[in-house]
Design a protein that fits this description.
12 strands; 6-stranded mixed sheet; alpha/beta; 254 residues
Length: 254
């Protein structure tokens, strides 16, 4: 099994350090979810791993260090804000995921492959509409499809379900988890919805104050004690009849 390892990662903006000495790991073939309260550095953590901002520390895949320029080729990163407008069609936006490998012409099979991916997310009927004619949730699905179409070794997603309805949240998370399992890639998503994250994640990385407060199987990370220490809330954590975790916030800690 290939594992992405992050060791003593430091990142921020200018002189302001947001991530300070974060160390964690994410295995391939599974979904790892990054959790933590607002302002703890989840987005910065993902951007630093992707090589999009200056960082220090070591990021390696299967023990082989990945310099920032290599990460920009090997890693697909989808930001939380996918509000960019474009006159390109949905199909064209997805095809851009393979831009580095495209020549002067597009192979006939490639649009069909892209359309199959759109069908997986239930938006195949939108393929000829322009991006600027879509809702925020629809654009989010399109950019996720583009990220998967790149065939990355590492997939990083910042709040991939934030603008989606309940049905599409399940479709997206199922697709990410299944894609990671089928293609053996590392998939990491930052999420706020802890119960939804626990339903799909195998492992979790909990950030607090810019560093890793806990990392491991999600049941070891999502405990009442940790929610109290990291989120400052009293919460009840219990198993549901379906075998998932139920997380009920009760009150802020005094």
């Amino acid at each position: 099994m290939v594992t992405l390892t992050i060791e003593t990662l430091e990142a921020g903006y200018g002189a302001h350090r947001v991530i300070t000495g974060a160390t964690a790991a994410a295995p391939s073939g599974q979904l790892t979810v990054v959790i933590g309260p607002n302002g703890t550095g989840k987005s910065t953590f993902l951007k630093a791993i992707a090589g999009l901002i200056h960082s220090a520390g070591r990021v390696a895949l299967h023990g082989i260090p990945l310099p920032a320029e290599t990460r920009r080729r090997e890693v697909a990163y989808m930001p939380q804000d996918t509000g960019a407008s474009s006159s390109l069609t949905v199909l064209e936006v997805v095809l851009l995921g393979r831009l580095p490998s495209l020549g002067l012409s597009i192979p006939d099979a490639l649009p069909m492959e892209a359309a199959r991916l759109l069908r997986q997310f239930g938006i195949e009927d939108l393929q000829h509409r322009t991006l600027d004619a879509l809702s925020g949730g629809q654009r989010q699905l399109v950019f996720l499809a583009q990220s998967l179409f790149r065939e990355p070794r590492v997939l990083l997603l910042d709040e991939p379900t934030a603008a989606l309805d309940l049905r599409h949240q399940l479709i997206v998370l199922n697709a990410i988890r299944d894609h990671a399992r089928l293609h053996g890639i590392v998939a990491i998503a930052a999420m706020h919805d802890l119960a939804l994250a626990a339903q799909f994640a195998t492992r979790m990385i909990c950030l607090s104050g810019g560093t890793v407060a806990a990392s491991g199987p999600y049941r070891q990370v999502l405990t009442e004690e940790r929610l109290r220490a990291v989120y400052g809330v009293e919460a009840a954590v219990a198993d549901t009849p379906a075998g998932f975790l139920s997380i009920t916030p009760l009150r802020p800690c005094a």
